[in-house]
Amino acid sequence: MTLTPTTSVAQFAIGDEATARIAVDRLNESFDDGAAAVTAFEGAYGRWAISLHFADPPDQAMVRELVALAAGDDAAAAVAFETVAPQDWVKSSLDALAPVRAGRFVVHGQHDRDRVQPNQLGIEIEAALAFGTGHHGTTRGCLLLLDEVLHAYLPRRILDLGAGTGVLAIAAAKALRCRVLASDIDPQAVAVCRENARLNGVGNLVESVCAIGFGAPAFAARAPFDLVLANILANPLRQLAGPMAQHLAPSAMVVLSGLLPPQAQGVIAAYRARGLVLVRHQIVEGWSSLLLQRR
Fold this sequence. Notes:
Layout: E1 7-14, H1 17-30, E2 36-42, E3 48-54, H2 60-71, H3 73-77, E4 80-84, H4 89-95, E5 100-102, E6 105-108, E7 121-124, H5 137-152, E8 158-161, H6 167-176, E9 180-184, H7 187-199, E10 206-210, H8 217-222, E11 225-231, H9 234-239, H10 241-246, E12 248-259, H11 261-272, E13 276-284, E14 287-294
Helix pairs in contact: 1-2, 5-6
């Protein structure tokens, strides 16, 4: 067992699950360099407790400002700070998480290996800084759409854009037993993706590269893509519509997520202008996931 050093924690409560989920995602975006780990748990009377864990004592005024932007002034005023003694809190958090099932795919930790059935494809992901363990509506939405696509379509050139821990790339590689290109703008995420692919037995199939947009040589070498999986955010997805379309094969399928339902139409319009039509729009846990096809 590896214990964390002494950590600092900022905590506050918020009114309902939907608001808590939005606040957590906004805070994760604010600390996307791994400076904080954000968790949320349901408490008494339907309220949700949100905690931010810091390796080093944070700037409390800055934290309150970010909480105010994410959850409002009342939540910011109620933030309480404390110091936590060394403990393996990452493992404790994961032990409390049930496996995530999405079609044939099951995202799980090491402690749940034996819960994966023979007719399922297990994707084992352990905690690695703040890149996600698959317990999020956007990841589940993408996996559900990927499972749907693979029932009727067998892509051979696959890209996971903004791969993070590599959940989607690993899922595609396991299901198809073919090569998948996974990219992320964060070098640490690239390393985590590479290690997770090895852990899941597809290290020889998933190529993980550090790249912004579509500028890296690996994209030109592997394009045109039959399937692109991009679980990012609404604004980057809109900006990437043009470059992505240039790297797609005819009839290519594209799975997009990381956007709230009100943002979906703007993203759909950006891709429609590049010749992609909407096949399915699904909402999972308050987050939109889109399946589009090039026509």
